[in-house]
């Protein structure tokens, strides 16, 4: 006989594991609305190991990461989004297949290093050679 809570939520699945996952997802309410993203990121473990991943969605307090199932994630780690100037300290909340749910513990803004600043100012492009013919000597 189906569970009354499952009937109330309209969950009538033959597979009890699938019904349990559906029930868990429907009962858990989000504190903040998540924004869908497809950011390329790098997980950095505290031993220096780096794991490529994608950020599928994000909110003020958490995110959903796409991480290959072969990689084992510890309970906490760092995340650097490519092209962004911040790093996140995360705690693993759940893991299902190629996805992981994380809670954002801390956000740190990265400062631009002096080397990068000097490289960008010293590398002004030379446009004088554009449109000129080369000698065939």
From TrEMBL:
<feature type="domain" description="PilZ">
    <location>
        <begin position="30"/>
        <end position="109"/>
    </location>
</feature>
<dbReference type="InterPro" id="IPR009875">
    <property type="entry name" value="PilZ_domain"/>
</dbReference>
<dbReference type="Pfam" id="PF07238">
    <property type="entry name" value="PilZ"/>
</dbReference>
<feature type="region of interest" description="Disordered">
    <location>
        <begin position="112"/>
        <end position="137"/>
    </location>
</feature>
<protein>
    <submittedName>
        <fullName>PilZ domain-containing protein</fullName>
    </submittedName>
</protein>
């Amino acid at each position: 006989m189906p569970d009354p809570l499952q009937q109330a939520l309209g969950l009538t699945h033959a597979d009890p594991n699938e019904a349990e996952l559906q029930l868990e997802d429907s009962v858990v309410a989000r504190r903040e609305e998540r924004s869908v993203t497809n950011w390329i990121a790098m997980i950095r473990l505290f031993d220096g190991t780096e794991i490529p991943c994608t950020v599928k969605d994000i909110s003020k307090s958490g995110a959903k990461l796409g991480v290959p199932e072969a990689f084992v994630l510890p309970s906490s780690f760092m995340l650097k989004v490519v092209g962004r100037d911040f790093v996140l300290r995360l705690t693993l909340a759940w893991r299902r297949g190629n996805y992981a749910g994380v809670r954002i513990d801390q956000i740190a803004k990265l400062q631009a290093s002096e080397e990068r600043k000097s490289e960008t100012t010293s590398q002004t492009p030379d446009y004088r050679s554009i449109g000129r013919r080369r000698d065939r000597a």
